[in-house]
Amino acid sequence: xxxxxxxxxxxxxxxxxxxxxxxxxxxxxxxxxxxxxxxxxxxxxxxxxxxxxxxxxxxxxxxxxxxxxxxxxxxxxxxxxxxxxxxxxxxxxxxxxxxxxxxxxxxxxxxxxxxxxxxxxxxxxxxxxxxxxxxxxxxxxxxxxxxxxxxxxxxxxxxxxxxxxxxxxxxxxxxxxxxxxxxxxxxxxxxxxxxxxxxxxxxxxxxxxxxxxxxxxxxxxxxxxxxxxxxxxxxxxxxxxxxxxxxxxxxxxxxxxxxxxxxxxxxxxxxxxxxxxxxxxxxxxxxxxxxxxxxxxxxxxxxxxxxxxxxxxxxxxxxxxxxxxxxxxxxxxxxxxxxxxxxxxxxxxxxxxxxxxxxxxxxxxxxx
Amino acid sequence: xxxxxxxxxxxxxxxxxxxxxxxxxxxxxxxxxxxxxxxxxxxxxxxxxxxxxxxxxxxxxxxxxxxxxxxxxxxxxxxxxxxxxxxxxxxxxxxxxxxxxxxxxxxxxxxxxxxxxxxxxxxxxxxxxxxxxxxxxxxxxxxxxxxxxxxxxxxxxxxxxxxxxxxxxxxxxxxxxxxxxxxxxxxxxxxxxxxxxxxxxxxxxxxxxxxxxxxxxxxxxxxxxxxxxxxxxxxxxxxxxxxxxxxxxxxxxxxxxxxxxxxxxxxxxxxxxxxxxxxxxxxxxxxxxxxxxxxxxxxxxxxxxxxxxxxxxxxxxxxxxxxxxxxxxxxxxxxxxxxxxxxxxxxxxxxxxxxxxxxxxxxxxxxx
Lengths: 368, 368
What we know:
The structure is a homodimer of 368-residue chains.
Chain A (H helix, E strand, L loop, with lengths): L1 E2 L8 H25 L5 E5 L6 E4 L4 E4 L3 E5 L6 H20 L5 H7 L10 H15 L15 E3 L2 E4 L9 E3 L7 E2 L2 H4 L2 E5 L3 E5 L2 H9 L2 H4 L2 E5 L6 H14 L3 E4 L4 H12 L16 E4 L2 H6 L5 E2 L2 H11 L7 H13 L1 E2 L12 H14 L3
Parallel strand pairs in A: 11-12, 11-13, 13-14
Antiparallel strand pairs in A: 1-10, 2-5, 3-4, 6-9, 6-12, 7-8, 7-10, 15-16
Helix pairs in contact in A: 1-2, 2-4, 3-4, 11-12
């Protein structure tokens, strides 16, 4: 058992809460100050348009440029989003104060309790993203969580910080079907682990196969089911396992452009989270299923659809896909015009993916 | 803590395995016997067509009628499905013998390891359903599990029967984000519980809200997240909690026709599982959100879409919707022409659904 890389002087949950509440207070004070000075209050937010996004080679993710927007209460067109943002700041403060979690949809409906009206949920979602951009903090820090959940299994001991469970510990290797990654796990301390790597797989069936075949023992691995494109809580957890425990992260997806992009989003985030920093694992490695694996392992495959080709050409324009394995494998998919699923390895027996493919790819990953 | 309603002389997993392997052996013996007698072997399977489905008022579910199909190796048109079925029986025996789980997709690809060819996955899925119908056993008993997972939380102690975990116990109240319901939980013994009811909710966000607001304590409840239309493993678990532990099951969904149908499928199964008996909770109660709740609680709502109306009229033709609350609420939806989400209660504060709505509906359920 090794101790976590970094000792926290206080719990993650309480430091997150203090951090955000401090930012909220400053925002409120700036508004009051301007009113006292007889000036119309405003809020300045980094501009989130595509034209203000640039790819940062060092951070290995999209970031926002220098451009910003000002929402001024003096401008009749700005009054609505300005008011929405101020209400949201107030509501987030209440959530944190009372130790409650919520979802994007909860926030939309909660506004009605305050006679604040959003015309639809996309409008309230957008204001939440504005507050994220304003504070450079993900909405999970505001206690707004995704509704989707994915799962984790492996020898890591956590310590809860949520109300009613503070100080309680749990080892995540006792339930072989896996533990959901929700608000409690997201805010738990990572106390100790014997694991030496994290393996993220795209599918629940494979997750179960990996546990059943004891991948966690054989490779000293923590196994994560991303359940397709992973929810942000899961990307946040992958980042924490990587950064706090120093574990390398390997990603295994279906052998198609969507699988490749699942891996890319874990590694370098999504363009629409360009205003955030805490959701990426820049050292993460996509170990398969590559287009070239379809050929090498003679996997059962099916032809790419028009939709696949369209997506492929979109990704080719993305600067993140300009080099390395990302570029190389996009070109292979384009050449062979076929795709495979992870389960295709069952052609060689149910355990072939664990006995043969996984060790070969983990070995190859050393030179990636 | 009360003991489980029924003492099992041996584990569920091992009795399931013996049960299915006995059926497989009999199938194999009948084929060999016919060959030894110089007769072309065949397999008789209940006919699964809509014309052979009838609604059983006592069982409260669709069942298959008397009609059957014979797949004879003498008929050139039958050779393909006959061979597929015999191979599947062989493969399931291997799965059970080796204690491995699989998915529908795994089976499709595994066939290629034996040079057995399915033209696509629907063809292999269909053969799996044939074997279910032949044996009147769900495919989970063949160790073929759904890939989707939903979750459970509450004071129930289970004892695993899967390899490597035999005899280990776990209480499902220690991880507030919830435990996935996969093969291990599906085959675990339910040892003891202090719970007095099960509450199934349609959404992950609400599941978290319920745990956060201690619904499990206040109502002595086990909470299940169905994650939309529940996977079969989850329906099977609901049935077990109901039948083995004697717990009433209450179902809470969005206030729309899809939500109503989620509840109906938990209570009375789906038409395409008419050949099975183990997936229903006939005494289960849909406690909301009803169409009439939208009116009574003045919930934020949106207009039904054309698609909603189409589905509504389909359900009105289903005999299961001919009476009681099912019929009444379909009519209300048709009259008010609107629908609401569970989160809409946040209009009255985040905890209103737990503090006000849930107790009122549980009370009302007594007279359902």
